[in-house]
Amino acid sequence: MGHLLTAACIHHRVTGKDNFLSVARKLGDYLCTIFLPRPKELAHFGFNPSNIMGAAELYRTTGDAKYLRLAKTFVDMRGSAPGGSDQNQAKVPLRQEQEAVGHAVTAAYLWCGAADVYAETGEQALLDSLSRLWEDVTQRKMYITGGTAALHTGEADRRLLRRWPRDSVHEAFGAPYQLPNRTAYNETCANIANAMWNWRMLALTGDAKYAEVMEQVLYNSMLSGMGSEGRDYFYTNPLRRVDGQPMLSNDSLARWTDTTPSSPLRCFCCPPNVARTLAELSGWAYGMSADAVWVHLYGSNVLDSRLPGGGEIRLVQQTQYPWDGQVTVAIEKAPERELALRLRIPGWAAGATIQVNGQAAEIEIAPRSYVELRRRWSAGDTIKIELPMEIVMVEAHPLVEENRNHTAVLRGPVVYCLESVDLPAGVLLDAVRLPGHPVWQVRHDADLLRGVAVLETEARRLPSSRLAPALLYRALPTGAIDRISVRLIPYYAWANRGPSEMTVWIPLANGD
What we know:
Blueprint: H1 2-15, H2 19-35, H3 50-62, H4 65-77, H5 104-121, H6 124-141, E1 151-156, E2 167-172, H7 188-205, H8 208-222, E3 240-241, H9 270-280, H10 282-285, E4 286-289, E5 292-295, E6 301-306, E7 312-319, E8 326-333, E9 338-345, E10 353-356, E11 359-360, E12 369-376, E13 382-386, E14 391-394, E15 406-411, E16 414-419, E17 432-433, E18 441-445, E19 452-461, E20 482-490, E21 502-503, E22 506-507
């Protein structure tokens, strides 16, 4: 029902027609009849709370305040009575929740709906709760790709958290720092929901930290859910794949499995979710306020719109981002008044520079912030942004046990991985180690995976005795360690060249 309400509102906005919207209003009226009285027996009425976003959108489209009351009621009912479960965030009222628990899709959809309600009501308790949950997710329970669901099935072990006994959960957040790689669930829908939530938090606050997570998902754990040809998909998005080791029973097979009616896969929520996200990204790329245009996402495009404060704006953005950090924004039309352009400087872009009409902008440029350029703009003005794209090797928090003495490699917003397809013949993925200070080469390959920037360097290979299959534990190797050439590709593009092994987190060579 929630998706129907949202779709009808967007259909009306795009076409101006009321036929679909009239269906949505009938549905909304029915929901008001059932839920506005707050019947106790429906305290735990549903699982997936997309209806909150739908009701809020119906209010915005029609102006009928009862639909906003409906959205707020749905938020209020969650966790309002005994008997709820952490699985669908119904054990504790949202305003009292301290940490992210349960199903990662229903959680983020609930938070999206609550953000929509806050946007219309300004209730501080809602924003406080969402901010608290955001800190828990991003600092303790989110993968480097923006994925958010560590567990296929299991228990939210409250002995590891802060309160309550254990609840059975699936497709869910784990305990703090519980971020396994091979068994990571990271459902594509959950990753997209994470981006949806951060987009809303960005619109509410203007804080660049939310744009960081939104972009992190879009270039990594959302895009990885779709094959390079757009015909197949991942339901889950693990950060490691080891050939010959069975996936868990409710995990999707690797991406090369087809999605025809004869496919063993039976859940097809993710492909249309990717499709709708790609379709709506034009609405995420920019933000508007009365006296400012916010540039959230970089990419070649044209913005042609009217400003909330009056006047027209037309910008032309040209760039090869995310493969190149140079962005040019040309002003083709602007209002006859002072206007601010707020340009996002990503957290990884230390040393970024900005020029306006060929002159360096005399302004502080800090990573993970918006830089404001305020002036009266004229047609022909040009802004040039340089975002240094250094290759960065990162480590995880020491409590993420699986990643101790491992590194992940990033360039700009893109997380890279090592896939067995790109190793020299006879080299096993588990034998590869990265030196502490490798020399990297960046090369754009237009013919590989529909065009990607690859990272090449010299790595180390452990002696074969290190990987004797019969031994669970082995002595550290003492023989010579070979030097080999390796190539890393963007994580989102793995599993497009047949069955393979893959890892995002790569072990470091000891003493090297």
